[in-house]
Design a protein that fits this description.
Helix content is 27%, strand content 24%. It has helices at 7-30, 37-50, 125-142, 151-164; strands at residues 54-55, 75-78, 81-83, 98-107, 110-119, 168-169, 175-177, 184-188, 205-208, 211-213, 219-221, 228-230, 236-238, 241-244, 251-252. The structure holds 2-amino-4-trifluoromethylsulfanyl-butyric acid and cobalt (II) ion. Cobalt (II) ion binds at residues 113, 175-176, 207, 209, 240.
Length: 256
């Protein structure tokens, strides 16, 4: 069942998403060669808490038995890491890295979710293009994120754009509805069929998140039970915003 947010709930969503965007602004400022992913994590957590939020990824349970809850306040995934990288004091960011930071803020019982892939120092043109296409894929998708359209219209637009540009979309992970829970219905794959899926309605809040691989689409999970990497070692990028479906254009809640 897809939850339709009331006016009041939408205002709460706006606030959680505003804090999410603020954190990304701060990360963008401080991310430099030499900083560790744990330092980024601590900075993010501080900004979240100073703004009355809770880092919702911290303590998030794994669906796999024997895998500890997610330990970080943010996910940090470097180069061939796709998503769910665990912050560590031993992982330094290097000049030329592309670094995906995915974070979820809970505030007053509502969640905001956004991911960016940051270019650190002198990045290759190939990596820059991957990051740019991943971001553009989100914007291609949300052209269709309008009341009356079908969810498959959005999913298809994302996948088709990515593949037209010679890249692959990750199939095992997807976007999602969001609100009182980090993950709500519907699931939002980065591929699909136009005209299929649920009908979009005003008041739906959705996290749309292309995860794009330079090479083949296959992925592997590291022994930590969380970090997802590309099987072929090629680069990956991630771009995500929480949006609100309205009568007209969608509103992007995690850009301020
Ligand atoms: N932010 C991710 C998403 O977009 C979820 C992260 S999993 C967690 O759905 F364990 F880190 F929380
Ligand atoms: Co998400």
């Amino acid at each position: 069942m897809v939850d339709i947010k009331s006016k009041r709930e939408i205002e709460q969503m706006r606030e959680a998403c505003r804090v999410t965007a603020l954190v990304h602004k701060e990360i963008e400022k401080v991310i430099k060669p030499g900083i560790t992913t744990l330092e980024l994590d601590k900075i993010a957590e501080k900004v979240i808490r100073e703004n009355g939020g809770i880092p919702a990824e911290k303590g998030y349970p794994s669906y796999q038995k024997g895998v500890p809850d997610f330990p970080g306040s943010i996910c940090v995934s470097i180069n061939d890491e796709v998503i769910h990288g665990i912050p560590s004091g031993r992982t330094k960011i290097n000049d030329g890295d592309i670094v995906s930071v995915d974070l979820v803020v809970e505030k007053n019982g509502f969640h905001g979710d956004a991911a960016r892939t940051y270019l650190v120092g002198e990045v290759s043109n190939e990596a820059k293009r991957l990051v740019e296409i991943t971001k553009q894929a989100f914007f291609e998708g949300i052209k269709y994120a309008r009341a009356g359209n079908r969810l498959g219209d959005v999913c298809h637009a994302i996948g088709a754009f990515v593949e037209k540009n010679g890249y692959s979309v990750v199939r095992e992970f997807q976007g999602h509805g969001i609100g009182r829970s980090m993950h709500e219905d519907p699931g939002i794959p980065n591929y699909g069929k136009p005209g299929k899926g649920i009908k979009l309605e005003p008041g739906m809040t959705l996290a749309i998140e292309p995860m794009v691989i330079q090479g083949n689409p296959d992925i592997l999970e590291l022994d930590d039970g969380w970090t997802i990497i590309t099987e072929d070692g090629s680069l990956a990028a991630h771009y995500e915003n929480t949006i609100l479906i309205t009568e007209k254009e969608p509103e992007i809640l995690t850009i301020i």
